[in-house]
């Protein structure tokens, strides 16, 4: 099983999983494989490694399950967990009062780092480095030992998730700015203003950092200099981070006008055409509740009514709509399974947490 081991899948926050083209089942609705009851409502996305899926609840539990939905272990704490864990040998959880590393196989605590301020970002894993933000700024931590390597006082809390490339760390800040710093030292590289508080954090693609904010502006920033390449504005507010099809000149971003907006990444223009005028994007039944994630050539997005949509990346246009029983609590986590006998693709799984405390596994099979 491939990994989706942190918020939006990887350290660049691309929200994209490459899938073999032979899995044409993605063009159709997935089928439900199983559901598992958790010990509390889900408020953050699950994460996946090669051994299973991990999900945190607002009741302070972290649960590990195998790919058949069987519970492997449960870690219980008195502190609520609203931030997405990260997993790579250890499961890293930002609690209200501490950052905890758990053995992924057993759930046993390995190290704990007490917090002096509340954590405001999910942990981002980049090699042996773990990056977290709190009300005082950002700290880079050695993932194996929990020891701090460097800190950067941003003078305002970071918001959303931290993104990382080979050279720099990118973060949105509560004071309506976006900051980049050196990955090795934590020293500031650039800092630029946004039009409002950024939602979700930066997305890295095509040597740019893309952000969306509560004022209804998308910014495409040069990753090296912070220079603005283009802006895209709407009358409402964006609710989640943008997702970019790298090399395909397409950006998807969710907004509170019940629309999945679609733009190009050359000038930030609307990409969909109507009979007479361009269209801002694809209308949903309710306000988007999840980041748009890309699995193969299909964009997946959920809304607050519990609807899950499959969108063709080439159109873009709707392929299917699947209503779910309970509201989708957060962005799903996909995983790609390869048959162990012939090394051919066998299925894609999608793990979705809901508001009533269940984890649902949907699947597309190669022969579906």
UniProtKB/TrEMBL annotation:
Protein name in the entry: PQQ-binding-like beta-propeller repeat protein
Residue ranges annotated for the Pyrrolo-quinoline quinone repeat domain, each copy included: 32-81, 175-327
Pfam families found in the cross-reference section: PQQ_2
Alphabetized SMART domains for the sequence: PQQ
Family annotation (InterPro entries): PQQ_b-propeller_rpt, PQQ_rpt_dom, Quinoprotein_ADH-like_sf, WD40/YVTN_repeat-like_dom_sf
Top-level lineage group: Archaea
